[in-house]
Specification:
Elements lengths: L10 H9 L12 H22 L13 E5 L7 H6 L3 E6 L2 H14 L4 E4 L2 H6 L4 E7 L8 H10 L1 E12 L3 H14 L16 H10 L3 E11 L4 E5 L5 E7 L5
Helix pairs in contact: 6-8
């Protein structure tokens, strides 16, 4: 019998990133923007996880004992730092090519990560549970945002948290994140993002709330041209991050 379950996977998006997989760890290649974006993401994750679970963010392994899922992990750019900070990490991606690249790099780096070529819905249906879910730059590439968020939320343990980073659907984002980044500056390959698939904060937060999550923080992320780095900002018009918590059991 054919599998009639709904899926969040957009095959065209999986194919697009699979074709670029070999360049994940090249800081000057097609994923250069993610490499430059990583420091602000890592600092935000470290500080918020430490705050949530009562850890010292300045310690060498503040994530010891915590189970992380990096969903849509790509080549593992976030998985490896999380593992080095002490987390037990599952890295999941729908692209088998991305997962093979991630596994190879982790082996070369001597980092232990459980990489799986799978989907959010399959992980959720298998009953997987995590203290922290990293959902970074993924929602704008899935086919069904509410279903995707509900499946991810299922996997957050009571008292656990989920980070979601994405791009707002605004004319400013169209000009900067698509026309500017892909066609003018060529920071990203053309077609990386489709405007109609971008997600507004109210849409994302509604999907999270309907999935039983409570929004605890939100921040914009903007590029400082003079400092040549990304930084947190009150401006959510283009790139933004949302933090949501699943209520603890009473």
């Amino acid at each position: 019998m054919a599998d009639t379950r709904k899926t969040t996977i957009d095959p065209a998006e999986v194919d697009r990133f699979s074709r670029m997989a070999a360049e994940w760890w090249d800081p000057t290649g097609k994923f250069k923007p993610l490499h430059k974006f990583n420091p602000v993401r890592l600092a935000y994750i470290r500080d918020r996880v430490a705050e949530q679970f009562g850890r010292d963010p300045r310690s060498s392994r503040p994530f010891d004992g915590l189970r992380f899922l990096d969903i849509g992990c790509g080549g593992g750019l976030l998985c490896e730092p999380m593992a080095r900070l002490g987390a037990t990490v599952v890295g999941a991606d729908a692209s088998e090519t991305n997962i093979e690249v991630a596994r190879l790099h982790a082996a070369q780096s001597g980092v232990s990560i459980d990489y799986r070529a799978t989907t959010a819905e399959d992980l959720a249906d298998a009953g997987e549970q995590f203290d922290v879910i990293l959902n970074m730059e993924v929602v704008e590439h899935v086919s069904d945002v509410p279903l995707y968020m509900s499946k991810c939320a299922e996997m957050v343990k009571p008292g656990g948290i989920m980070f979601v980073a994405t791009i707002n659907r605004t004319l400013k984002a169209l000009g900067l994140a698509i026309v500017g980044a892909e066609y003018v500056l060529r920071w990203l390959p053309r077609g990386t993002h489709q405007y109609e698939k971008l997600v507004r904060p109210d849409e994302l937060e509604r999907a999270l709330s309907e999935s039983g999550m409570t929004i605890t923080d939100r921040t914009g992320v903007t590029y400082n041209v003079f400092a040549d780095r990304w930084q947190k900002s009150r401006d959510l018009d283009v790139n933004y991050m949302v933090l949501a918590q699943k209520p603890a059991l009473s």
